[in-house]
Amino acid sequence: MLSNLVEAVGYALVVAFLYLLWPPLALLGAGLLLVVWANLRPQRKGSPLAGAIGAALGAARSAWRAEKARGDG
Hints:
Layout: H1 2-21, H2 23-40, H3 49-70
């Protein structure tokens, strides 16, 4: 549990630093950290969170590409 706390504090410090540079950068950095952390962390049995995040991102990307291909008209 302590390693999870240390990890969370480290990520909070990174996001705080990004916020000091430029606030919208903090949102982007936090989102990227969550995605990378969910995909690189070993998946525990009974914890489909990383799979759900990956599926949601894939669906969002597919919808974005379809909308982009459709164009403005």
